[in-house]
Predict the 3D structure of the following.
Amino acid sequence: MHLDDFDYSLPPALIAQTPIEPRDAARLLLLDRTQPGLGDHHVRDLPQVLKPGDLLVLNDTRVLPARLWARKRRTGGRVEILLLRREAAQTWEALVGGKGLRPGVELELVGRPVEAVAPAAPIFVRIEHDLGGARRLLHFSSPITPELERVGEMPLPPYIHERLADPGRYQTVYARSPGSAAAPTAGLHFTPELLRELQARGIGLAYVTLHVGLDTFAPITETSVESHAMHSEWMSLSQGAAESVNRARAAGGRVIAVGTTSVRALESAAEQAERQGDPNQLAAWEGATRLYIVPGYRFRIVQAMITNFHLPRSTLLVMVSAFAGRERILAAYAEAQARGFRFYSFGDAMLIL
């Protein structure tokens, strides 16, 4: 498949710069793969749109305030750091911005530039390895995680140009497992009240964890879509969540993934179960996943998904195209533009049945 087949144009005015209030006031485009046409709802309508016995699977990862600033100790040159994944207590994979950032270069954190907030004590950083492109392996002089809330900033995507007044709006209301470099944005639309209403109507909830990493920031660059190499992301499926999925399927309920990260976690666990000889029964599993879902993929668990509108030429657009068909998805995106839907991280959502 050629990358150009997953391209589309979008007026900049449709890129949402701020989150809508309240969260569940976001619009919801309904694409039923068995029916023509598109429905037009709001996220708050989900209790009426879904059915008792359905199971929503949500990603409970928590975004780290992982954007940091530093200076070179020798020259004072400015460096920007985006933490991607913790390798050890004081060692992280990160994206770095600046010149001459070779292994051996030493940095010092300087805190958030706008508020001039500095670390409580000096923190030094040594570049250990060049991992290709802007990726580096960094070693901190002391654990950085306890300092992130003080000196870090939410790593908003580069297409969002307005400062986020409330950092909590780039977290889901159920976020509890710190580790992501970006939010699982389909989950940003849910409120505690909506979750309670869904449960009151017999719609189940289960949680997985997948820490969003580099591929959120890395578009496909190869001409051939299949040639793209996914970076690994850490995920965890508990035994309780696995049993919830198994029970829902056995009872005839639909497993509905909230976000592409939940899709990736569920399908990764399903492939693990298949390797162990029982593809119809999920079991607890955690580890790194490199699963790359492209058209032709056989979905084992996910029967429906709630997802935002994704960037052109991205792995996420390729994934939803694998689920609903490339032509159907691109036609839905064109119709969403015509109807004035908001796109990307702070934008509106789709429900694909």
Observations:
- The chain has two domains: 3-63+165-352, 67-151.
- DSSP finds seven helices and 17 strands in the chain.
- The longest strand covers residues 78-88.
- The helical segments are 46-49, 148-151, 192-200, 239-250, 260-275, 315-324, 326-338.
